[in-house]
Structures are given as C-alpha cells and as structure tokens.
Design goal:
CATH topology of the largest domain in chain A: Nucleoside Triphosphate Pyrophosphohydrolase
Largest sheet of chain A: 7 strands, mixed
Radius of gyration of chain A: 19 Å
Number of domains of chain A: 2
CATH class of the largest domain in chain A: Alpha Beta
Low-confidence stretches of chain A: none
Mean pLDDT of chain A: 95
Structural class of chain A: alpha+beta
Oligomer: homodimer
Helix content of chain A: 10-25%
Largest interface: A-B, 29 and 29 residues
Chain lengths: 219, 219
DNA sequence: AATTGTTAGTGTAATATATACACTTACATG
DNA sequence: CATGTAAGTGTATATATTACACTAACAATT
C-alpha cells in the first residue's frame, strides 16, 4: 500500500427559496479560474479542523450572507475530472431559505451572488448542474415525507402560501380541501389567531409551526 | 483566500448480509495504526483519477473479495478528530451481499475479514459505529420504499425467505397473508415454476425478480 | 399404511386513508 | 351597493390497509 493521494475537499450548496411564486436557486459568479466568470453553486474548501456541516454553513454565510437556514448533506461528488484542476472532492448540501429572507445581505464576498429561477439557469461551472438536479429531486421527494416545506416559508403563513410551495415544487395542483385536511391532520400547525388581509377578498388565517424549525418525518 | 487544506479521502463500506437468519456485517481487522488490531469497516483511500463509487467497489473487492454487489453512497463523515491522524474525510457506502454469496473469498488482503452479527459487534475503529448506525437506519427505511430486499437473497427464493429478511431487519413480524399480497402486488416477481423441498413439510414455490438487479422505488 | 409434526399457501370482512367534487364567506374596489 | 377575488368548508366514493384461521403437502416415525 503506497502513500494515499491528497485531495482538496469542497462543500457546494444548492440553496433554494421561493421568490414571486417561482422556485429560485442562489448562484455566485466565479471570480477566479477555473470557470472564471461562470455561475456556480456557493461553496468552498474545507479547512483544517473543520467539520463538513460547519464548512457548508461558513461558506454559505461568507459567500452569500445567508445564515441560520435549513442545511442538509446531499451526497458527495468525486468523479475524476469534475474539476479541471483535478483532485477535488465535493460534498454537496442543500439549503432552504424562507421566502421572506431572500434579500441578499451585502456580505463582503456576496456582491456576485444572485437568485435565478430554477427553470431558467445559466450554464454552471463544474458538475453543479448535476448536483442541482439531485438536490431538486431530494427537495421534491422530501415534501411528501417530511415537513420540510415550512423551511421555505416565513414563521407565519397561510395555508394557501403552503399549498403554493407544493404546487411550485411538485408542479401539480392538489385539491384545496384535501390538501388542507392533510396538512392539518399532521398536527404540526397552530393558528396564530391573526388574519392577513392581502387583497380584495376574504382575509386568510395565519398559521405557525407548533415547534418551529422541527422537521418531522411523515408516514 | 489562502491555499486550501489537503485531505486524504477514504471510502468505508457497511456491508450487510443475512447468515443463519441473523443480520451480519462484514468487518476487517486493522493491520496497522491507528486502531491497529481493532475491527473496522472495509474501505481505504481514494486514488488519484478514481471516482468515489469506483474506490468503494475496489476497496471492497481488495479487502474482502466481495464484488458485484449492490453498493450505494450513504453520506460523508468529516468531523475533525474522526481519524487521530487528522485530515481524513470518509465517504461512507452501504453494500448488500446475497445470502448465498457470503462465503469469504481468500483475496490476498481478505484474511482478516469476518462476518459479525449486527447485534453483537466488537468495538469499532474511528467513527465506524456511527456510520453503521446510519447504514442500518437507511437499510431499514429502504425496505419499505424500495425493492432492495432482493439484493440480500439468492436469485431464486421463497416468499418465506423474503418475509424473513423483513422480519430480521425490521424486527417485526408482518402477517403472512398480508405480506404476500403486498409483495405480489408490487408486480416485480415471477414464479420460477420450481418448488423447493426444505424439510418435513409442504414444499415452497420459488420466485425470482422479473428484472433481476433492478431496484424499484415504491409508493 | 396410518399418524404426527411442520411449514406453505390461501380469502374475506372491517377499518382507515385518499380522492373527487361545489358552494358560501369576507373583504377591497369602483 | 354591485362586482370580483381568494378563503374557507363537508360529504360520498374508492382505494388501501389491517385483522384473522384453516387446509395442503411433505418427511419422519410408528
């Protein structure tokens, strides 16, 4: 057994939010080679004495100003040639930003960060398009077997807001009454008591999670 | 941005099979430091110009002689301190060996490989106990939403064999008639036409997968 | 040849879950 | 006060899941 090869380990984060009723992904414009000037997932190299989750959270904050959001490991990508420099293994994450927090803070590095509609992405650096497809599939699947959708909404929201999240991500329109029955039967929401007047129509009741930030696995 | 840190990347594989109606895990005795003499998951370092899946398959074959089995990426583990040498990120895999193929081939390195009952494991090197718990949870969950159980059985098997796999891994005893109804409704099995005489009782019909090796996601 | 022990194999009724479907309510606007 | 818009609500049907007990086919024993 000869000496093991050395690698750089990166984390790359597929960051989703919902803006103007469209699924959006946060990308940054690369400032240096390789793929200089191309759009890419936010991310960066793992430091000595740093955990993977920690690295993902740090890079996300540094590059985009986004912090305190839902973050989950997606999988690792290590095909030789995925980075033209070679020797880079990427641990991919996916993150969900609430719809009321997608304003991009002007963190030092964040100048080059921008939201893109998931359906209208530019050409991406590295294998980031592949990572995004995997992330999207995971997000779609998790809507059905977890309460992850709340991570895309403000602390208080209407059931119509929630249904919209499902419609946007899954691309299908559930029956309104059945959807509401299903959600309320999960027993994770409570009425705030307030109502939101949003236009020339009946105001909607506001709900919040009974235990905010708790992801429940369903079924 | 300073120069990124360098790491060694390892793959570690949680290999499951069923032996004598008990869930077993394949471990190797470490021949060198750190954790020399301890039991550990098979695995090893990623080579230059090698993909992660490729590395896992290669290490598994080299260290245990096991090849051609179901292999799936589980997740990555990179806590600082998980390896006392530091600077090692592990990409964990899980593998399933059919019950008729668990004889350990005498590959050069495989001398130190042994099956252990999952319920009676020795103390493990690194964070391999943690990896095994994650792998076990994934296996258990996947029984319910995929046809992965067939990967633990020979090409031809009885419905009782199959039910036993579920009982062993999930630790619960489904009703025989309901289980058979459920399995057959998946429409992935066909009768071989043969029957297996196994003792002083009625012989059992043999089944095989309609499309062997195809994992179907259920639901 | 008959008896015993053992696992394979089978159906139906009850309950729970999921689906389909249409009208009334409460507001803002003109 | 008439109009337009999205919020909010219930019931009937279909589908899926669960509970449950006996007969069939063999080997081994007498």
């Amino acid at each position: 057994m000869s000496k093991p090869a050395s690698f750089h380990v990166a984390t790359d984060i597929a960051v989703f939010t919902i803006r103007a009723d469209v699924l959006n992904v946060l990308l940054i414009e690369r400032a240096s080679q390789p793929f200089k000037g191309n759009w890419a997932l936010p991310g960066g190299f793992l430091n000595e004495n740093e955990g993977l989750d920690q690295c993902a959270a740090r890079e996300l904050a540094e590059e985009t100003g986004v912090r305190g959001v839902y973050l989950e490991q997606l999988g690792s990508f290590g095909d030789p040639g995925r980075d033209p420099r070679g020797g880079v293994v990427s641990v991919a994450y996916f993150a969900l930003v609430p719809a009321d927090e997608h304003a991009l803070l002007a963190s030092t590095d964040a100048a080059s960060a921008r939201w893109f509609a998931f359906d209208d992405l530019p050409k991406l650096a590295f294998d980031h398009d592949k990572i995004l497809q995997v992330a999207h599939a995971r997000l779609k699947a998790k809507l059905d077997y977890s309460t992850i959708a709340f991570c895309l909404l403000p602390a208080e929201f209407t059931l119509s807001n929630l249904q919209m999240v499902y419609e946007i991500i899954k691309g299908e329109t559930p029956d309104k009454r059945n959807f509401r029955k299903w959600v309320l039967a999960l027993d994770v929401l409570e009425e705030t008591g307030d109502r939101r007047v949003e236009g020339a129509h009946r105001p909607a009741m506001l709900y919040r999670e009974k235990t905010p930030g708790t992801i429940k696995i369903i079924r």
